[in-house]
Design goal:
Elements lengths: L1 E6 L3 H12 L4 E7 L2 H11 L3 E5 L7 H7 L6 E6 L4 H9 L4 E4 L4 H12 L4 E2 L1 H14 L11 H11 L4 H8 L3 H15 L4 H10 L4
Parallel strand pairs: 1-2, 1-3, 3-4, 4-5, 5-6
Helix pairs in contact: 2-3, 6-10, 7-9, 7-10, 8-9
């Protein structure tokens, strides 16, 4: 089971998200918070696999809560009603593993939680391309410690298109373990912390 701590300051939204996630056979909501401070406390106490945090919350917002949990073994997915570049940028910069709009639907919500738990990153398709181009224009491209191999370049481009490890394995006709090995090598060469930063580098260097 994927254990989730959920945080949203609106009771109706909070309960709706909890019901959607608990309806999944492999996901369990183990803690619910109404503000970012309580979300951080619950995440540290309950050690969930994933935190699903709203951005706009009292006491402590979702972005700051994400930043405070950056060194903890919990993957954060940020969810919001506001499709604003600065929110997406700030959330991912703080270490979030995913970004969703609240109207994304139950299937994408569950997929984002699963992806985060598996070490992947899922960003709402409606903001992905624009987001990555915003990131790319805001940073200077990192120079890799050594050149990427041809197969690593294939994996890199697939990551930038939003593919999960399982999808990449199917597309490239390689095993899931091989994809993970390539990803580990790419991240090491780029000094990237997660898949989002790998995708950003692909856009910065015009691989996609």
């Amino acid at each position: 089971m994927i254990r989730v701590v959920l945080a949203d300051d609106q009771p109706v939204v909070r309960e709706g998200l909890r019901m959607l996630l608990d309806a999944q056979p492999d996901i369990e909501v183990v803690g619910v918070a109404a503000d970012g401070q309580e979300a951080v406390r619950l995440a540290r106490a309950l050690r969930p696999d994933v935190g699903l945090f709203d951005i706009r919350m009292p006491v402590l917002d979702g972005i700051e809560a994400t930043r405070l949990l950056a060194e903890e073994p919990v993957a954060i997915v940020v969810i919001t009603t506001f499709d604003l570049d600065e929110y997406v940028y700030a959330a991912l910069k703080a270490g979030a593993r995913g970004f969703l709009l609240k109207d994304a639907g139950p299937a994408l919500l569950a997929d984002a939680v699963r992806a985060a738990a598996a070490g992947d990153a899922l960003i709402d398709p409606s903001v992905t391309v624009r987001l990555l181009s915003v990131f790319a224009s805001a940073r200077a491209a990192v120079v890799p410690s050594e050149p990427l191999t041809a197969r690593e370049e294939d994996v890199l481009r697939a990551v930038a298109r939003g593919r999960t490890n399982t999808e990449i394995a199917a597309e490239l006709f390689i095993s899931l373990g091989t994809v993970k090995a390539h990803m580990a090598s790419i991240m090491l060469k780029l000094g990237a912390r997660n898949r989002v930063e790998v995708a950003m580098w692909a856009y910065e260097t015009r691989r996609v």
